[in-house]
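Hey, can you fold this?
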Amino acid sequence: MSVVFREPFPATAPGGYVIGLVGDDGAGKRDLLELAAGLRQASPDAVTASPPRRYLGPSDTAGIGDAMTLAMYHTLATKDAATRARTAMDLELLRRRGGAALLVSHEPDLLAWLSDEIWWIDQGRLKQKGDPREVLDAYRRHVAARLREQANGSSLMLTPTMRKGDGRAVLESVETLDESGRPVAVWQTGAMVGVRVVVRFERWVADPVVGILIRTRIGFEVFGTNTELEKVKLGPCQASDALGITFRFPCHLCPQEYTLTAASHDPDGVWHDWMEDGLAFSVVDHRYTAGVACLRAHIEVQKLTK
């Protein structure tokens, strides 16, 4: 039997379907589940759902039993792999007896695995529904845009894990920039981005070199360069001189968290100021990509004959 919503929006969860729900906090996902499970009062005929109904919350065991209408609100968030696999089998039994399930989770991969359809709830309305991959990709774009908007105009400075140098120059600021040159704490995969380093010289330096190094949060070195490698000469610099150096490049990084190291030093490696892991930033994208390098592969398929 299906679950039919007439309020707050017209939508039907067909019998034999598991519907995954995504949306920002406060969008109305929990309200919808409580309506389906009969825990929330609604106007007459607002919701039609087959008994027995069952609502499972974050702290409940993932026992579906004989439910024909099932509402799971983050129930699998803290469950182990064995429990999740057993729940997947229980959901298949629910499908075969014609029941309907609504599943809320913050894990896109879990929803893609368990769901036949995804509903995107936005401010109490059904913004989009359909194929799990298509709707999840659209929602990821929304989340990425929201993260970038929230992170505009700021950089996340850390306490450096190491800071050393002979003091002939000082790193006054290090910032990650978006495609418009504005400070941000979040980069978008595929966009032109930048790193700006401001160096002030305390004493005369004949031939300074300024460099950057990007690492993953577990310390894996991803990319590093400096003005010497890029054949840009900065010196000689006098005491009280200040330079702003901006490194620009397309962001070919996969979504995750990174740290940034910056340094001013001589060509032979003697440090003026070295700031190890002094800045943190994130990379977001609308799709899942494994690893660190996002190379955006183009695929060619040939049908081969024997």
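Oh, and this one too while you're at it.
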Amino acid sequence: MTRIKICGITREQDMRAVVHSGADALGLVFHEKSPRHVSQQQAAQLAGSVQPFVTVVGLFVNPSAGYVKEVLAKVPLDVLQFHGEEAPEFCRQFARPYLKAIRVKPGVDLVECAARYSDAQGLLLDAYVEGTQGGTGESFDWSLIPHDLPLPVILSGGLHAGNVAAAIRQVRPYAVDVSSGVEASKGIKDAAKIAAFINEVKNVDLQLSR
């Protein structure tokens, strides 16, 4: 079954909607330039009230090691997600599993990326948009993803209830990751959109399993 991560949680009611709808993971953004940024205090409150068996992922963009360690001292994160140009040596130093985000465009060698970040839990593949590190709501050409990547693929970028089934049929990712596609406005999630997205994922999984 395709795993589901809802990223950019900023409010407790949104976190509850994510959990109750059946998502596997939720993302907290520690990047101040993002409209979905949360303070360490906010993040600690949100992560501390997540129900069991839901993974809490912390998203960072080119942070200092000191900042990551400061966040980890206050927020119970299960997985780290690095969305900048962090080297493998940087990503693996925090005694946490990590995901490495790759912004996909023609010419990006995803097989080489998988080899370089071979100890990552997976590659999160997002759309390349000049000047931004993600959360754009833009999709990319899914045919650029090789079928033989040696790491699990977490598909992101422009997903919503209207296209996630087609994305899963084409890519067969380990997981899908959505943020803007389930929002009422930037940083504010819509419970109905979350439920619709998750229902689409579960429905296509059932169809593919027959």
